[in-house]
Structure prediction request, 155 residues.
Amino acid sequence: MMKNRELKNDRQKMYTIMFTEEERKLLEAKAQAYNYRYLSDYIRDCAIYESVIQINIDYTESVNNLFQQYIDEIKKFTKEVRRILKWDTTTSAEEKEIIQQALYRVYSQTKSLKKSVNDNINVEVIEKESKKKLYNKKLQELNKTAKKVLNEVKK
Prediction:
């Protein structure tokens, strides 16, 4: 169990939060996993530095619908060009192959663009990025502390 410590002088107000036994164990396990000495520090950091993510789901659905319509139109266009190429007698086999490859690139790039947009809108990806930012911030703080300690040791 983590021990309580005296409040710092700059702390102005104290709050009491009730947890179930399971919640408390989970909080303690997480605090230990993140190398917090005190549970209160962990809870404070979680409450203050959490990433608030708000996603407009309607926007996400409308973007996906637009992309799907766009991809459907490209499929129709590709199918029609292939039909024309099948019966075309004036275009060489080499030119037909170049057109086929161009159609494939357009279709592939469209799918890639859709995936990229979905990844940037995806909640899980955003949460992972937020956690990564918090981790980097904490790492920078630890580096600053380490530099201060080294400077004090050198003196």
About this structure: Residues 57-121 form one domain. The mean pLDDT is 78.
